[in-house]
Specification:
- Helices cover about 45% and strands about 15% of the residues.
- The chain is an alpha/beta fold.
- The chain has a single domain, classed as Metal-dependent hydrolases (TIM Barrel, Alpha-Beta Barrel), CATH 3.20.20.
- The strands form two sheets. Strands 1, 2, 3, 4, 5, 6, 7 and 8 form an eight-stranded mixed sheet that branches. A two-stranded antiparallel ribbon has the order 9-10.
- It binds zinc ion (ZN) (2 copies).
- One zinc ion binds next to loops.
């Protein structure tokens, strides 16, 4: 069994890179990809632990991209060589735009009368500070009684605190990853095109035409019907198949590394071998 989709506390998970490697070893995973949002920090930190433990660790990332008006998560794997310096510089610029959004968000929340600082929020998010980290501080300070309320009242797109950040067009992300020697995979297609299967097929074709290499057929949120349909899409558009739990530790209770939601997941090692053979 392998897991090609997981998050550390360097993005929005709760496990440190060392703890995640430990969990993978406990489960007997044959390979693990760390796919933090917009950063390789967690992967980089996990490398020595994986080496010591004898775990096959795969360099991955999950990019937030724009397709039409929608946000689409695009996984990328660097299976053959590490990402280029050019790609890492591009990524750094993306992180900087997120930091700028965070600075604006803090100002708005302070204007709304809340006692909150960026330093407080950044202790929750480390490399990548995202809206859930703002929510957590608001919750701890008693401004809201749940994460849901934090989003509804302050952080959601319709809420007064919301600040739009720059997101990369999906075509650009696909091209960047390809140029850097990686392969892209459409993350959790169940959340794409509002799970309208016909529209999804049209979108996946466009992404495949743009150079996307794979689709995440197996995921904790996918029903057996989803899996069957996404498998068909992979065949139809000549895409490789990926799969993983999308493990976030305590930030997504009920999802286990490797086995997903109530053991609905078991991704075989052969899938990784095929992915490797699909070198773009
Ligand atoms: Zn995602
Ligand atoms: Zn994810």
């Amino acid at each position: 069994m392998i897991d090609l989709h997981s998050h550390t506390d360097q993005s929005d998970g709760t496990f440190t890179p060392a703890e995640l490697v430990g969990e993978a070893m406990k489960l007997g995973l044959e390979a693990l990809a760390i796919t933090d949002h917009d950063t390789f920090k967690g992967y980089d930190m996990a490398v020595p632990y994986a080496k010591e433990a004898g775990l096959e660790l795969i360099c991955g990332i999950e990019l937030s991209t724009k397709f039409g008006g929608a946000t689409v998560h695009m996984l990328a794997y660097f299976l053959w060589e590490p990402p280029t310096a050019e790609f890492c510089t591009w990524l750094e610029a993306l992180l900087e735009s997120r930091r700028e959004r965070n600075r604006q968000l803090i100002v708005k929340l302070q204007d709304l009368g809340l006692d909150i600082t960026l330093a407080e929020v950044e202790t929750k998010g480390r490399t990548l500070t995202a809206r859930p980290h703002f929510g957590r501080v608001l919750l701890e300070k008693g401004y809201v009684s749940s994460m849901q309320e934090a989003f509804d009242k302050y952080l959601d797109e319709a809420a007064p605190g919301y600040v739009q950040r720059r997101e990369v067009p999906v075509d650009e992300a696909i091209a960047r990853v390809k140029a850097a020697g990686g392969i892209t995979s459409l993350a959790h297609p169940v959340r794409v095109a509002k799970n309208d299967w016909d529209t999804l097929a049209v979108w996946v074709k466009k992404m495949a035409d743009a150079g996307m290499g794979a689709i995440e057929v197996f995921h904790s949120d996918h029903t057996p019907e989803n899996v069957a349909y996404y498998g068909q899409l992979a065949e139809r558009f000549g895409l490789a198949v990926t799969g993983g739990s999308d493990f976030h530790g305590g930030n997504k209770p009920g999802i286990d590394l490797g086995t997903g939601h109530r053991r609905n997941l078991s991704v075989p090692y052969s899938l990784l071998a095929k992915l490797r053979a699909a070198r773009p």
